[in-house]
Amino acid sequence: MSCLMNCLGYPKPPRDNLSDPDLTVVRLFSKQLKREFAISVHTPPPQLPLQPYVFIYSHGNSENIPLSQLWMDDLCRILRSTFICYDYLGYGETSGRPSESSSIVICEQILNYAKQNYPESQIVLWGRSIGSVPTVSVGRNSLVSSIIVESGLSSGLNLVCEKPVCKCLDGFKNVQKLGAVNCPVLLMHGTDDEVVPFRCSVQNLQVLKSKYRAQQDLGASKIQSDVKQEIQENVIQESAVKQTDLMNSQIQNAQNETEIEFETKTQNQLTRSGKNWHYAFFQGGHNDLDTACEKQLVDIVIKFLKNVFGEEEFTNCSVENKKVRFQRKIDASRMTRIM
Hints:
alpha/beta, Rossmann fold, 2 domains, ten-stranded mixed beta sheet, 9 helices, 10 strands
């Protein structure tokens, strides 16, 4: 069944290698896979001060490094950060047959590669479509700062069935792994996605919401236990009353419904569940988020990153940065210094 899932997830890897001659491709060797794989490193032009963050971007099924180049160059300028993109086995200049397990192995190695120059607290994992699978898998076993899932799967069978008949035969199980992720997560999905149904994103959100509620319930129980212990130890009655009021207030906050915000002009919807966010692009298709909906995508990503790293971070970041042009020749010394 794993072979069937891999065929479903990677139906026709693109081999298009046409790209800008200035594209820098690095080849790493995987001892576990016993083969080389290609990655590309993208940094903004010198006119845009580089921020100390690196994004590991896992592309979709119909993409590879050359086909992702323009978007990576745009994102590194928009966010003034380093972006690393990589190919799965069988994609672009990387040989082999793609699979869920091999994509996870490669993503893990790239994370270790990035950690040579960045602490995990400054690393963001970003996965689009099938790229959400290695992103979530690696993210749950690491201490990265945050995870961005764009048009991501909930599971392989959920692509074709609303309620899978046999979960044991399923693959690409993001919906199970998200429960073990400890960092903030941003889910983004178009409501009219014709490739990965919007229900997949809703299922992923439900897992994050359930985890958040469980954490809140645990916190409320601890507050209640601490207050009871304080009263039992004959603490001054007035203090106990104040603590009880505080307990009731915090328990009430823990039981509040998830925050939901609508953008009245577009009907896009932002749902917040603690540190986890879900953004629905109204009538957005699978390939609309980074094209027709580019500005909305950039705005919500920046808003999310500011919530993770602080309002003072990611200033002067917007789609306007795309107007800053790259130099035709790569500054080799700058590349060496960055990576």
